[in-house]
Design goal:
Immunoglobulin-like, four-stranded antiparallel beta sheet, Jelly Rolls, mainly beta, Galactose-bd-like_sf, Galactose-binding_lectin, 17 strands, 1 helix, 278 residues
Length: 278
């Protein structure tokens, strides 16, 4: 996370690529519509209201929120005080959501320093970037009254994540055809394109049976260690008599957004979370 470094990105509020709302507004002249960075009211009319959003209540339950229609890669935020009064947010935290159902605190709830005056702009570069549909800013401390102007930035990378992928995996050799070989054998599956989060994986079969002169035999197949980039398939025989020459299993992987919880490792290593540009 870098503060007051120039943010190279596409401004969301200025380009109306997100929908904004607030926890409360002081009145219609102090609404969220006035929260765009560097907003100034017209000197010739009073119709524009105040130079910034002003909350209806002065407590830690207040927030502003920006929601996009799809998953975005947010690279930074700028925050500024109210331009026509000594009111600003001096510290805040960031929350975000992939599906508007489950919310997560960025950097485990780290509190960021905000403004110290009306018009100074504080830039915060997100490292790693936040992958989300919705971002919210929650004031923690403020001067006189909760008021702000702000901007969010995305980069030009298109966050196009798959919802479903299909394929098959086979043992591919005679490892399990030797009675001196292992009882279990794993094969790694790499998705053609990483999901935004760890998907659900369904295999075509769970067990398969086959007959030999010695009698009926059974083997098991299981998916383990599922991540957004792939998973392991475990082929298991129940005894050394269960010799398998080879087998191929179909799979379906699908992402359920409300079941995904990003790991600390993904926060620290954004390359684990995003597919690389080609």
């Amino acid at each position: 996370m870098m503060m007051n470094e120039e943010i190279k990105g596409i401004p969301c509020l200025a380009f109306s690529s997100v929908v904004t709302r607030s926890s409360s507004d002081f009145d219609s002249d102090h609404g969220i519509k006035n929260s765009i960075l560097n907003f100034k009211f017209s000197r010739n009319t009073k119709c524009d209201g105040s130079e910034g959003w002003r909350s209806g209540s002065n407590d830690k339950n207040q927030y502003v929120i920006a929601a996009s229609s799809g998953i975005q890669r947010f690279v930074g935020i700028s925050i500024q005080g109210r331009g026509d009064a000594d009111e600003w947010v001096s510290s805040f935290l960031i929350r975000y959501s992939l599906d508007n159902k489950r919310w997560y605190e960025y950097k485990n709830g780290q509190v960021f320093n905000g403004n110290i005056d009306r018009n100074g702009v504080v830039n915060i570069k997100f490292e790693p970037a936040i992958i989300a549909k919705t971002i919210s800013l929650h004031p923690i401390t403020w001067n006189n009254h909760i008021s702000l102007r702000w901007e969010l930035y995305t980069d030009d990378e298109v966050c196009s994540f798959p919802q479903i992928q299909m394929g098959n995996v086979s043992i591919g050799d005679k490892t399990l055809s030797n009675n001196k070989g292992p009882i279990e054998y794993s094969r790694c599956v790499t998705f053609d394109k990483p999901f935004v989060g760890a998907p659900c994986v369904s295999l075509g079969i769970k067990y398969f049976d086959f007959s030999k002169e010695s009698g009926q035999n059974r083997c098991a197949v299981e998916a383990k260690n599922i991540t957004n980039k792939g998973f392991e398939v475990i082929f298991k025989r129940f005894s050394n008599d269960n010799l398998i020459n080879d087998c191929s299993i179909d799979f379906v992987a699908f992402w359920k957004g409300d079941d995904y919880i990003p790991s600390d490792n993904e926060f620290k290593n954004p390359s684990l979370f995003l597919y690389n540009k080609k």
